[in-house]
Write a structure and sequence with these properties.
- With 249 residues, the chain is an alpha+beta fold.
- The protein has 10 helices and 8 strands.
- The chain has 2 domains: 65 residues, Winged helix-like DNA-binding domain superfamily/Winged helix DNA-binding domain (Arc Repressor Mutant, subunit A, Orthogonal Bundle), CATH 1.10.10.10; 169 residues, 2-Layer Sandwich (Beta-Lactamase).
- It has a 6-stranded antiparallel sheet, sandwiched between helices. Strands 1-2 form a two-stranded antiparallel sheet.
- Helix 5 packs antiparallel against helix 10 and helix 6 crosses helix 8.
Length: 249
């Protein structure tokens, strides 16, 4: 049973924005299993609604996953507590506000709000999984993880470059994470996308454990003009969410 669950997890992990359909032969090759086993796995997941079989005999993600995702997002305490505060600062500053968690080796965006003048950040839609080393929320979440966890994540994901400003050296990343722990916030200065900067801060639960990170994404020209204002706003928002979760510094 556990082996089957592991295979299901690996199969579903094959799907992303660039790979939305998979055929039986492809799945067999990627998972290293027999074609007949891949077929049975795909057909079983389609039968319960986790996948949908196309007219061409390929498989896409099923609509039942949408229902489950909606239940998760609507009942997750961190998102429920953070959302009203995110609405307030999105309305006040008219910039994009993100809430993210670290799921194994990737950052997952669990909430996002855009102000009227906010630049659209297409990479960070709900549920998107991104590398952690290049974003403000990602660096915050890495900074409060044990060193051995960070090294494991780097070993698995590497430190790919997205812009000339992306940190791709492990020693430099370690130094950056140390500074984040000291100052309590992180910057993304055009490290994921050019002309876009972010400021992120940690969110702790009642035990004091960092469970999420909140950030504000701002076009570089506006960010440089009002950096201190944005930093104070996101740190204040993080502390307000922490208080709702029962944490008081």
């Amino acid at each position: 049973m556990l082996k089957t669950i592991a295979k299901v997890s690996k199969l579903l992990s094959l799907y992303d924005r660039e790979h939305t359909e998979w055929g039986t032969q492809q799945v067999a090759q990627r998972l290293g299993i027999a074609k007949s086993s891949a077929h049975d796995l795909l057909a079983s997941l389609a039968e319960v609604g986790f996948l949908t079989r196309t007219d061409k005999g390929r498989y896409t993600l099923g609509w039942r996953l949408v229902a489950l995702g909606e239940i998760l997002l609507s009942t997750a305490e961190i998102r429920c507590q953070a959302h009203p505060i995110m609405e307030e600062i999105a309305a006040q500053y008219q910039e994009t506000i993100h809430l993210a968690i670290l799921d194994d080796t990737k950052v997952v965006y669990i909430d996002k709000l855009e102000g009227n003048q906010a630049v659209r950040v297409e990479l960070t839609s709900l549920g998107t999984r991104l590398h952690a080393h290049c974003s403000a929320v990602g660096k915050v979440l890495l900074a409060y993880r044990p060193v051995e966890d960070v090294k494991r994540i780097i070993a698995i994901e590497g430190l790919p470059r997205f812009t000339p400003n992306t940190i791709t050296d492990e020693a430099k990343l370690e130094e950056a994470l140390l500074n984040i722990r000291k100052q309590g916030y992180a910057y993304d200065r055009e490290e994921v996308l050019l002309d876009l900067c972010c400021i992120g801060a940690p969110v702790r639960d009642y035990t004091g454990r960092v469970v999420a990170a909140i950030s504000m994404s701002v076009p570089t020209y506006r960010f440089q003009r009002s950096e201190l204002t944005y930093r104070r706003a996101i740190i204040s928002a993080a502390k307000r969410i922490e208080e709702k979760l029962g944490y008081y510094a």
